[in-house]
Design goal:
The chain has about 200 residues and is an alpha+beta fold. The chain contains nine helices and four strands.
Length: about 200
Amino acid sequence: MATRLHRRDVLALVAATVAGIPALGHARAVRPCLDDLLGRRRMVRRFTDAPVPAAQVRRLLRAANRAPSAGNTRPWAFVVARAARRRRALARAALGQDFVAAAPVVIVACADARRSRARYAVRGDLYAVVDTAFAAMLLLLAAVEERLGACFVGALDEDAVRRVLRLPAAVRPLAVIPIGHPAESPPAQELRALDAVIHDETW
């Protein structure tokens, strides 16, 4: 007996078919659920030589651009580096982490505090960092969905990154994110027990 689908499920399946996504019998099977994405996310530091198409990079950035932000100020910006010389320079700026240069694409997540500060004054500096981190997290999850590997590299010389990318003085580079097809399968990291991170009412 065929499974009965709700109207919303039928519409989702039709939309998926138009988008070229294979339907697996139910709308929920069209794309991975959040728990699956979180379970598969790893920090990948080894990549194959296979290129990452521009359209795929565009999908990652489209996902990042959907992040929430304080007052909808959207203070993030992303610099996409493909040239080998620039990737090597970014690896040096990331305190000599050579695996950065091995990825075919490096995306640098930047916080433009001018956008947040215009509404929130000095507090906007903090909001710009938080909001850009939100966007970077969505980019990492989108990479998982695209079956790519990525790594959030926050250990970097900000001034060196600014010079490599010719960033305005007011724009702060928060992370260098190498992206490519993974050449390793890192094990899952041990999580802190949930009860150890939850406090009811007060600390």
